Amino acid sequence: MRTDIAVIGGGAIGAAVAYYAKTLEPDVDVTVIERDPTYEVASTPRASGGVRRLFSLPENIELSNYSIPFFENFAETMAVDGTPAEIGFKKNGYLFIVPPSDVDTLKTNFATQQVHGCRVVWLEPDELKAKFPSMNVADLGAAVHSPDDGWLDPHSVLIGFRNKAISLGARFVADEVVAMTRTEHSVISAVLASGQTVSADHFVNAVGAWAKDICAMLDFDVPIEPLRRFEHYFESQDPIEPLPYLKDTQRLAFRPEGQGYSGGVPTLDEPRGYNFAVDRNYFENSVWPLLAHRFPQFERTKCTSTMPGLYDQNDFDGNVIIGPGADGLGNYHLLSGFSGHGLMHAPGCGRAMAELILTGGYRTIDLTRFGWQRLLDGAALREQGII
Ligand SMILES: Cc1cc2nc3c(=O)[nH]c(=O)nc-3n(C[C@H](O)[C@H](O)[C@H](O)COP(=O)(O)OP(=O)(O)OC[C@H]3O[C@@H](n4cnc5c(N)ncnc54)[C@H](O)[C@@H]3O)c2cc1C
């Protein structure tokens, strides 16, 4: 089979690339190769669904500035044959809380977010207490609240992009890439488990946590590793006032969900690998102490479900690697390594990838600094004070 753009991986990222490519250039031939159309272990349906502008790097803030309003209009934009693509977007805000030692970093980030036009509100501990009376603020130095952020249903985002891309003429092939062929400077084809071969002008690696496997098929290595992370569902024994998506510097991250809450405490100490085992003690040992410390209503909380999922963790600097150039390959584009914030940036990155391939450069957001070159330069581009 021959196609113009072969996208490997049909999760939120791959589906977004297909949608934007077909939107920017309706005549372009796009083929998405996804080995599991049920997405059983894919990261997208296992994500928490948080979308926020609270970053320190201008690129990540701008990706959110583009993506979050896009999500707000997603149902209409992605409607197919008049049926809206609902994603349950809840504009209930985000809240970063920090101890006194991190106030300066928070202040710097707050200033950057303001420069980029984000609606952010600085809260001193007494203001935080007035807004969220149940919260223990005794050990906190400050907080930043972003009322226009929130959360949504990740699986619906994926299906919305996928259905719309298909309606625009993108082809989704249910097959697995098992080998790749290349010359020194370009990829020639992807070989599928069925025996079929896909040749293309451009190849996009959008397999997320499995990114390094495709690179290994091309005989080179990337520092993107699968990192297990749990999403827990738990309830409080007594009611708490309505909360935004709350994050602290110990990596506690949770939000209201139904009658209870959804969230967890991701850790970089986790061994890398394709591990979907559930550690039944993790909530009690690592999540509950932080919850109970922050809200007395969680002192006797119980976790009723724990879902494992994989981050595509970029161990170089915790940010996406986007674009061509890896191992000298000009038509092979990485779009992985999101390290926990890929879903919220699927629209911005999907669009950026389509622009890069179809117009030869970024038109909406300049993501050059997120390219492969920074790895060659040893120039890590890390978020500061943001997890
Ligand atoms: C617990 C948890 C919570 C998270 N919370 C958030 C959050 O709140 N906000 C946020 O923005 N992000 C969050 N994330 C991160 C987010 O889920 C990811 O960044 C995003 O979903 C990545 O999308 P993707 O399409 O790259 O990956 P995936 O959804 O994993 O899609 C990759 C696809 O590639 C396919 N594939 C793999 N290998 C091959 C092959 N050889 N051939 C063909 N197909 C292949 C897989 O089957 C898979 O469907 C969270 C992640 C986890 C695990």
Structural features, described:
With 387 residues, the protein is an alpha/beta fold. It is 27% helix and 26% strand. The chain contains ten helices and 18 strands. α1 links the parallel β1 (2-8) and β2. Strands 1, 2, 8, 9, 10, 11, 17 and 18 form an eight-stranded mixed β-sheet that branches. α1 (12-24) packs parallel to α6, α1 packs across α9 and α2 (58-72) packs across α9. Bound molecules: flavin-adenine dinucleotide. Flavin-adenine dinucleotide (FAD) is lined by residues 8-14, 33-36, 39, 42-44, 46-50, 176-177, 206-210, 229, 231, 309-312, 336, 338, 340-344.
Main beta sheet: 8 strands, mixed
Quaternary class: single chain
Q: How do the helices and strands follow one another from N- to C-terminus?
A: EHEEHHEHEHEEHEEEEHEEEEHEEEHH
Task: Please count the beta strands (DSSP E, at least 2 residues each).
Answer: 18
What portion of residues is helical? 25-40%
Give the C-alpha Rg: 21 Å
Beta fraction: 25-35%
Instruction: Give the count of helical stretches.
Output: 10
Round the mean pLDDT to the nearest integer and report it.
97
Question: Key features?
Answer:
single chain; 387 residues; alpha/beta; eight-stranded mixed beta sheet; 10 helices; 26% strand; binds flavin-adenine dinucleotide
Summarize the structure in short.
The protein is of the alpha/beta class. The protein contains 10 helices and 18 strands.
